[in-house]
Amino acid sequence: MTTLRSKKETAPIVKSWIRNLSPAAEFWLVIALCFGVMLFKSFDDALFHLFVGPRRHPITDFTFLSMGVYELAAMAAVYWIGRIRGWSFASFGLRVTWKGTGAGILLLIAVELALACQSTLLQLSHLSGGYASQFSGALTLPTIAINSLTNPVFEELMEVGYFVHVLKRRGMWPTIAASVLLRTLLHVYAGFAVASGVALLGLIFGLTYWRWRQLWPLIFVHMMFDFFGLLQQNHIR
Q1: Is 195:133 a contact under the CB 8 Å cutoff?
Q2: Where are the domains of the chain?
Q3: What's the helix, strand, coil split of the chain in %, to 5?
Q4: Residue 50 and which of 13, 166, 178, 187 are 20 to 30 A apart at CA?
């Protein structure tokens, strides 16, 4: 009884605190909830590689599914915060349509061409780099499929949709630059070539979303990259 009473007394206090947060405080709270752990791990791996050497990470179904659970929990927390503060994910443009799928296919072709051009330029300028972390192990096909659904939804919802929702009053370029910066920092562990490719992808995604305000084409492209990327790396059993 005491525990129930304390929870009932605490909930209104927490809701009131969230409701009265400034826009900047809300933004940093959401970033900490969704990306704090990932940013720490990305920088930790990058620094380890710089001073010690590549760090090996075993790939297992458990680690990938754990990441999916974390992302779902973070989205649930942000959804709750949004409801308290008067906004919802629905306003980000999450509708799945055939038209959006067609746009996603065209966007996939454009992204592949852009990344191919960037890769060629990096090779010609001798700036292509390797991975800071080395992955070993294998995944089952169901785990790859689940990860290829949850991770794209989480990343595009939070790294693009939320950023535009919060920062759009500052203008297109500052908003897109902030989104690209976060996406890139989350991948610094992977070396310059990968991080620069992620930055280019983030720029294309940001411009596309700013123009049409639809997340599904972005999620579709991300799903294709995640699914076939894991298959091509032979992390499957």
Answers
A1: no
A2: 24-232
A3: 80, 5, 15
A4: 178
